Amino acid sequence: MAPHRRHHTTRPRRSSARRHRHRVRHARGPAPFPGAVMSAPRVLVFGDDSSPAADVAWLFINTHCWPGWRLEVVTAHVPDVPGVALPHEITELHRWKPPQPRAVFAEARFAEVADLTAEADPRIALSRESDLLVIGPRGPGLLKALHLGSTADWLLLHPPAPLLIARHGHAVRTVVVCADGSPHADKVADVLAGMPWIDSLAATVLVIDDGRIDVDAAIDGARRRLEAAGATVEVRVERGAPTATIHAHLVEASPDLVALGTRGLTGLRHLRLGSTASAVARTATCSVLVACDEQEYARSND
Predict the structure, then answer these.
(1) What is the per-residue pLDDT across 43-53, written as a single tens digit (0 to 9) for each?
(2) Do residues 217 and 297 lie in contact, with contact meaning Cβ atoms separated by under 8 Å?
(3) CB-based contact 276:250 (threshold 8 Å)
(4) 27 lies in a domain?
(5) What's the predicted TM-score (pTM) here?
(6) Is 30 domain-assigned?
(7) Buried b vs exposed e over 249-282: b needs ≥16 C-beta within 10 Å?
């Protein structure tokens, strides 16, 4: 059967933004007025293993603007003798001075940068609360090739935070957002809408009509979130098997980023090799953003 497609593009009015001077590493904002309540900064965690893939992820981070965000550069050192008890102060993440600290671009405008390390399993070191976790697709130890049992695959199972696997170092301009109306798909749309560079994106909301979802509800939910944040939105509806259809669309469209929930309305209780999110994360040539709705995750695993 020939694929069924619907196209719809809307362009929200963009408000003018004032220019701000770039802030450099550990820059401080203006002092608060007496009695002001300071909100905690949003946090981006970068998993660093000094590999070429980590270099790409670092470039990805620095080609985007993160005003007011805190950047945590996390390096995990696997203990030389597994099973031997180590002092608590080195197994927990703590500040350190790397031999060759990474240079932060002034254009990234981070409010604060912290170099952290721990003598621990990298999967544990990276499992910390944050607004975004950025890693490379492979590495010699911290981020090996995306195969069963690797750190990246383990993180995909249940991301401790929205997880971005960076496969290129240039700024995102086009994104495909996979929507099916599930809580996890809504979560990743919310995460994307919360990125400080959302208003520069051309987003395609991709809905796969496989007979199990409310197509109109899936479209409306994703489009409403993205348009409200300032993105330009196009909608595309396809029919077919989700994984194969998403892959075909990515090959055709060549976006900079694809965003999807860790689970959809498929009845899967766990993300396994072969599921849509896992398959897309392994095969996509663009960067991949995945997110998990914690309440839905807890409910489905009761």
Answers:
(1) 999 999 899 99
(2) no
(3) no
(4) no
(5) 0.80
(6) no
(7) bbeeeebbbbbbbbbbbeeeeebeeebbbbbbbb
